[in-house]
Amino acid sequence: MITASFATPDDLDVLIDLYRSLEKEMVAIHPMWPLADGLPEPVAEAMRFAIDAADSFIVIGNVLEHPFGFLLGRIETLLPQAIGEKVGSIRFVFVEEEARQVGVGEAMRDLALARFRESGLTRFDAHVLPGHRLVKNFFEAGGFSARSIVMHHDDNK
């Protein structure tokens, strides 16, 4: 049985382990990820803030009540010319490899979108690294399409 639920501070140890697995996977795709796109250290503090803050949340995805993934969402304000309009942003989504393609990600995504919609939002973003085709396909299957790509150059490489 696949389920998704909102994380509580009691879930921090599991969330940190899942985040470190995400970090390892992202570094293999782009070494800059933990410096520019990941959570600020200490991760436990950043996770606790995301759980407790009114404009963010973390979802845990389970298979038979065992946590196999997490999603971090937050409400972000668009530029001033949007006159206070906000967007629901999925900053991170991760499912352990052995639980992929069974619906864990979809359950987390759907719960996150429901939470955003309950907040009155109608626009949604999902952050995906270039080259991470599986996650791009996952979000496209959920109705998302790319609106921005960040290019990067490192003189040290």
What does this entry look like structurally?
The protein is of the alpha+beta class and 157 residues long. It has 5 helices and 5 strands. The protein has helices at residues 12-29, 33-36, 43-52, 104-118, 133-141, and strands at 2-6, 56-63, 66-77, 86-95, 124-126. β2 (56-63) and β3 form a beta hairpin. α1 crosses α3. The N and C termini lie far apart (46 Å).
Task: Give the arrangement of secondary structure elements.
Elements: E1 2-6, H1 12-29, H2 33-36, H3 43-52, E2 56-63, E3 66-77, E4 86-95, H4 104-118, E5 124-126, H5 133-141
Parallel strand pairs: 4-5
Antiparallel strand pairs: 1-2, 2-3, 3-4
Helix pairs in contact: 1-3
Summed up, what is this model?
Helices cover 36% and strands 24% of the residues. It has 157 residues and is an alpha+beta fold. It has a 5-stranded mixed β-sheet with strand order 1-2-3-4-5, with helices on both faces.
Backbone CA Rg: 15 Å
Tell me about the largest β-sheet. Answer: 5 strands, mixed
Mean pLDDT: 95
Measured distance between first and last alpha carbons: 46 Å
What share of the residues does DSSP label as strand, in percent? 15-25%
Q: What would you call the structural class?
A: alpha+beta
Q: Specify the number of helices.
A: 5
List the uncertain runs.
none
Query: Given the C-alpha coordinates, what overall shape results?
Result: globular
Q: What is the helix content? A: 25-40%
Total count of strands: 5
Strand order of the largest sheet: 1-2-3-4-5
H/E element order = EHHHEEEHEH
